[in-house]
Amino acid sequence: MASDTVLAAEAEVAESFASKSLLGSFSNLPIEILLEILCFAGSLSQETYRALLLTSTTIHNLTRLECIPFLTILISKKNHLQPFYSWLLSDEALAHRVKYLWLAPDTSPSKIDDVPLVVVCLCSCPNLVSLACSGAELAAWDSLSSNPKSRAHITPSGGFFRHPSLKHLTVLEYDQWRPHRNSSLFAQIETLHVIGCRSRGTRFPCEGLLRRILPNLIDLSFSVPHGVTPRVDLMARGDLILSPKLKRVAFITRAKSGDSSTLSFDSSLRTLFGHRYTLFYRPKRWTEMKIWQADCFKSSCIWTLQRYEDREPRS
């Protein structure tokens, strides 16, 4: 409890640095301590990072590059995509320091015109550690990574197709998609989280994923859309569950306690996965984006959610 209080106090102080001059007595701190405080402040949010850059030339020069590896970058609206791309192109050193990226500006199938720009953004960030994006864009990037002949049609020269540090992947399933059959990207993934959608044309989970064995996959989790029942039969016939290092499988629901459809697939999945399986409940305040952000710096955040079976039934 005491450590939480200290962290909260540090966060409050750090954020205040972004709204006023840090010169004076504060600038007398050793540069290592000053930089650590500024990096903590800049990593709290994109807004705080931008505010720090505007504080002074000194603070701008100290934080412009140093904060990026600790910042979760969220591109969730279409009108943010082009400015983000321009920002990446403005300085290769900035792009190479991006590690945590939520890149889902518009995941509807009708926005296929956004896919090339999203792929170019991904190819500009070779040191990603954790990525969240839609299945369509991920499949396009994966295909290009695995098929060098097609790269010139979509990406500028100098793009990166190998992301050796990328181990944590979140996929938003808004359309049918599948990993490339010779995918080097999926061969290195250790944690995979799949967010389903309520679409009549998309079965959950997508069958293309279930047909792949991921050799380094350790943790697998699925967020079940409201009113959708997972296709347990597809999972049972697929190869994904045969991934040799798979230790834990989680399904996450927002359904009320005692919901008949949830209890039905819960029983089937428990039979399929045995001791590796857990069903969790996601409170409304915990959005998918917040879970992803927390998981970037607190490994296995999903497995800290409340177990569905531990919730008290509502009358």
Describe this structure in words.
By secondary structure, this protein is α/β, with parallel strands linked by helices. It has 2 domains: 1-67, no CATH class; 68-310, Leucine-rich repeat, LRR (right-handed beta-alpha superhelix) (Alpha-Beta Horseshoe). Helices cover 38% and strands 13% of the residues. It is built from 13 helices and 9 strands. The protein has helices at 2-17, 31-42, 46-55, 57-63, 81-90, 92-95, 115-123, 135-146, 184-188, 207-210, 232-237, 260-273, 288-297; strands spanning 72-75, 100-103, 130-134, 168-172, 191-195, 219-223, 248-253, 277-281, 306-307. Helix 7 (115-123) links the parallel strand 2 (100-103) and strand 3. Helix 1 (2-17) packs across helix 2. The protein is globular, with a radius of gyration of 21 Å. The protein starts with a helix and ends in an 8-residue tail after the last strand. Residues 11-22 have low confidence and may be disordered. This is F-box domain-containing protein.
Q: Helix amount, in percent?
A: 25-40%
Q: Proportion of β residues?
A: 5-15%
> Which regions contain 5 or more consecutive residues with pLDDT less than 50?
11-22
The CATH top-level class label of the largest domain: Alpha Beta
SSE pattern? HHHHEHHEHEHEHEHEHEHEHE
The radius of gyration is 21 Å
